[in-house]
Amino acid sequence: MVKVIATKEAPAAVGTYSQAISANGMLFVSGQLGLNPQTGAFAGEDFKSQAEQSLKNIGAILKSEGLTFANVVKVSVFLDNINDFAALNEVYAKYFVEPYPARSAVAVKSLPKGGLVEIEVIAAY
Q1: Are 64 and 9 in contact (CB under 8 A)?
Q2: Long-range contacts of 7-10 (CB under 8 A, 24+ apart)
Q3: Which residues pair with 32 in a beta bridge?
Q4: Neighbours of 101 (CB within 10 A)
Q5: Among candidates 45, 51, 36, 43, which has minimal Cα distance to 90?
Q6: Cβ(39)–Cβ(81) below 8 Å
Q7: pLDDT average per 10 residues of sequence, the chain (125 residues)
C-alpha cells in the first residue's frame, strides 16, 4: 500500500510531487531544499544555513511518521558547488551517527529556486 506523507512542519512541495511516500516498510523523502516551512524563504544565503534547514525539514518529515535519522538507510545530496562538500560533512555529522547510512553527493548545474543544496533520504520503518 502506498501512502502520501505531508506535514506542515516541512515546506510544501514546490512542484508536482509529494513530501514523502510510504511504501512496503520504507519512507521515500523527496529532496528538501533549505526552505523555512513557515516563510517559504531560504533559511540563509550561505551553504551551512541551507543544509541545516534541509536536514531539519527531513527530520520533521521523519518525525511525522514516528521515525528518526537513525532509520535512514540512504541519503542523496545535490550540491550547487562541490567545494561545499567539507561544509556538508560538518553539518551532516550533527544529524547522523555511526553506522552512517549509505550516501552519495554530487554537484549539479543548478537547483530549484537557486538553492545551494538539496537532500533526499530513504528510511526504513
Answers
A1: yes
A2: 7/60, 7/61, 7/63, 7/64, 8/37, 9/37, 9/60, 9/61, 9/63, 9/64, 10/37, 10/57, 10/58, 10/60, 10/61
A3: 119
A4: 16
A5: 51
A6: no
A7: 95 91 98 96 98 98 98 98 98 96 97 97 98
